[in-house]
Design brief:
By secondary structure, the chain is mainly beta. 10% of the residues lie in helices and 62% in strands. It contains 1 helix and 9 strands. Strands 1, 2, 3, 4, 5, 6, 7, 8 and 9 form a 9-stranded antiparallel sheet that branches.
Length: 160
């Protein structure tokens, strides 16, 4: 009789653990952002840093996020196309993340490889709309460019 309550507790925990619903995977989303940019060539540039992205959650903690953004680097216009790999920590009301950003960059009329990193958060506003706050660093592999660029960005994400 002594061990029967222990056995009942073990059975209760096993049944309760396996019957809990799995964490729901968020739906895909489309977002836009704008922000400021700082690089080793110029000072802060408030005039030209914007883009859009698509969030494709594979599981609740890992997203693929194709991104396109544009900014100036000295006198050259730059367009970056990256495929961000975001590692997300889903929490109540917000979801911080870190990411790796490999991709291609067009500087003037030349294409170069880039690699970067990002840190940010999705802050749930209403229904299927979230605020995006993000800081990212990108290094363009081009001989004339020393150092990378840092971008501080904010935007909105609409989930379908």
């Amino acid at each position: 009789m002594r061990n029967s309550w222990k056995m009942a507790l073990v059975v209760f925990l096993l049944v309760g653990t396996f019957s809990l619903p799995a964490m729901a995977k968020p739906s895909p989303g489309l977002g836009v952002f704008s922000g400021i940019q700082f690089n080793s060539v110029d000072e802060f540039d408030f005039s030209h840093n914007f883009g859009f992205f698509v969030d494709l959650p594979l599981v609740s903690t890992f997203y693929l996020s194709p991104t396109a953004d544009t900014y100036n680097l000295g006198e050259d216009a730059v367009t970056d196309l990256t495929l961000a790999f975001k590692f997300v920590i889903p929490m109540r009301g917000w979801a911080p993340y870190v990411g790796v950003l490999p991709g291609l960059s067009t500087v003037g009329n030349e294409r170069h490889f880039i690699i970067g990193g990002a840190g940010g958060a999705y802050i749930h506003l209403v229904a299927n709309l979230s605020l995006l706050l993000q800081v990212e660093y990108k290094q363009i592999f081009k001989d004339e460019i020393e150092g990378g660029t840092v971008h501080g960005q904010g935007g909105l994400l609409f989930r379908f």
